[in-house]
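WARN retry 2 of 3 for item q-0093 after timeout on previous attempt; input resubmitted unchanged.
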Amino acid sequence: MTPEERLRELGVELPPAPEPLGAYVPVVRSGDLLFLSGMLPLKDGKLMDTGKVGLGIRLKEAQELARQTVINALSVVKGHLGSLQKVNRCVKLTGYVASAPEFTEQHKVLNAASELLFQVFGEAGRHARSAVGVYELPLGSPLEIEFIFEVNPD
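OK item q-0093 returned
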């Protein structure tokens, strides 16, 4: 089953790739690696929520935001490569979670992103990961995730 078929099975439709919100490009390829700029939980061009996890945003809500961030990342990858079948594996995820002072479950927020990547790519979706709590993120976003994918050589 292709990654696109798995997404359909999960009821996920990839939106158009989000436009950069600053002076950068959304993806850079170096050899067989794709480096994605930090992705935000945007839907229809707008942040799904703002604030801090553990202060107004519950863990379950933050996990949904993490899933949407992966969906946005996959739309960037598909737009760049033409097909998710060209992805060999997800190599690394770095997640930044805007956190309330006592919130220490950043790893659980990022689990939702990791689990979706596994559902889409199987074993090739397993990756190295960092989950970092931060005070603020661009536009008041509750999280931002960077991705590195290994892709088929051209």
